Amino acid sequence: MGDRGINLKDLTMRELETFFSEMGEPQYRAKQVAGWIFSKGAGSFKDMTNLPAALRDRLARRATPGNLVTQRKQVSSRGDTVKYLFGLYDGQAVESVLMKHSYGRSVCISTQVGCRMGCALCASALGGAVRNLSPGEMYDQVLAVQKDCGERISHIVLMGSGEPLDNYQNTIKFLVNINAVYGLNIGFRHITLSTCGVEPGIRRLAGEGFPLTLAVSLHAADNELRDRLVPQNRKYPLEVLIKACGYYSNKTGRRITFEYALLSGVNDSPDQAVQLAGLIKGIPCHVNLIPYNPVGELKYKRSSPDAIKKFREVLDRSGVEVTLRRELGGDIDAACGQLRRRAAMDQKGRE
Ligand code: SF4
Question: Is the pLDDT of residue 140 over 80?
Answer without folding.
Answer: yes
